[in-house]
Amino acid sequence: MNHPPVMPFNETEFALALMLLLLAPLAIAGVALINTGLGRSRSAAQSLLGALVIIAVSVIAFAVIGSAFAASSMNADHVIHLVGKPWNWMGRGPLLLSDLAASSGRSQLVTLFELFAASFAAIVPWGSGADRFRLAAATATTALLSVFVFPLLAHWIWGGGWLAQLGLNFSLGAGFLDAGGAATIHLLGGLSALAVIWIVGPRKGKFPREGLSTAMPGHNAVHVLFGCLLASLGWMAWNMAGALLWLSAAPATLVMTAINTLLSATAALAATFIVTRVRFGKPDASLCANGWLAGLVTSSACAALVTPLQALFTGLIAGIATPLLVELFELALSIDDPSGAISVHGAAGLWGLAAAGIFAPQPGQFLAQLIGIATLLGLIFPSIYLLFWMLNRVVPFRVDADGERLGMDLHELGGGAYPEFVVHRDESYR
Questions:
Q1: N or C: which end of the chain has fewer CB atoms below 10 A?
Q2: Residue 80: how many CB atoms within 10 A of its CB?
Q3: Would you place residue 76 in the very low, low, confident or very high pLDDT band (cuts 50, 70, 90)?
Q4: Closest to 254 (Cα-Cα) out of 179, 349, 173
Q5: Sign of CA dihedral 111, 146, 91, 2
Q6: pTM score, two decimals?
Q7: Three-state SS for 183?
């Protein structure tokens, strides 16, 4: 079976897709608010301002350069022939979106979707570097992701590239499927978060001795939980828009996509609530929020492809795994990830992509999904880490010790988010 054919939009479909895309940024806003709440109070303003700056840099970088590499293209210069098959590895479009006005309505919607997606992927590692990741370094990593890494991945998956052509060339289902961005946004963001964490290291005092971890709870659970509600509306819109754009779904099927998104999130929350209740004696608010987000991330890959029962199952697995993975990464691997992005976006995105292949009716779809996952883990992640490692030599990622002690708000912005309240320092700094 070939990749779902790209059909031109009629006026009704165009208006529906545009409305959904205008709601989709609520998912980004929700995650930005969650990241802020999970960080320390003395870094709250830097966290939320940083999200806005990252969005701005990503949008500009992708519009000016990255969109050219992400564009759909069958240009012979960018097709490699191996084993008698064409491997389309890079798009070739104009810079500065100079042909946008003359493009079809669907092409313009695709560009808007990708602008949002590039921004979303860049925000994910920002939360993982909370309380010690410099804003200047974050803007530099955002530019790299939006100019080079995200556009190539978007072309391979959404722009008719070699991953999308696995069905046509090798009869592997419909090719690699990622309608809601589980790979291009969330797994990419989770892998970028891991690279950032490895480079910046843990917050001071997080791991005082080998085998021990100091609890550093987020400063505002209300922000975290409200962010989950805000993100949910954007996520349902995002998944429905992705189904229209990348799967050529009929508008009548979109309600099921929204229902599956909600079912995946609620099942994940219920599972995390039970796991943390059993594990700690009481449910943990921040981990439950992470579970809810993990269910949403899982739905990004498969909400438009599964039944409601399957959506419940995929969310349940994500909700069970998330708190266990957060604990494993922190205690066993000494990974300091305040937002839980590696588990929430990385692991849950990977599981959603695999689930899309497991439950797909087309033969070979699971293998196509595995090839895409292997590409991200074996090619994209090493490339990201190498790029970030070299960039760190030019623009240091980590703030100096005095800046971390004062807090990122005072150090980078000259003022705190809560000027009327006393912000207490950690014991490790006294």
A1: C
A2: 11
A3: low
A4: 179
A5: negative
A6: 0.94
A7: helix
- Fold assignment, 14-413: Ammonium transporter fold (1.10.3430)
Domain chopping of the chain, boundaries: 14-413
Residue 207: closest CA among 325, 331, 329: 331
- Nearest CA to 186 out of 21, 70, 351 is that of 351
Euclidean distance between CA atoms 212 and 13, whole angstroms: 55
Cβ-proximal residues to 26 (8 Å cutoff; 6+ apart), any chain: 230, 231, 233, 234, 237
- Cβ neighbors of 187 (< 8 A, separation 6 or more) are 345, 346, 349, 350, 353, 373, 376
Q: Is it the case that residue 131 has pLDDT exceeding 90? A: yes
Question: What is the per-residue burial (b if ≥16 Cβ within 10 Å, else e) of 257-287?
Answer: bbebbbbbbbbbbbbbbebbeeeeeebbbbb
Q: What is the mean pLDDT of residues 122-132?
A: 96
pLDDT confidence tier of residue 110, bands split at 50, 70 and 90: very high
**Best CA proximity match to 303, nearest among 346, 244, 347:** 244
Q: Give the distance from CA 32 to its chain's centroid.
A: 12
Q: pLDDT, tens digit, for every residue of 12-29?
A: 999 999 999 999 999 999
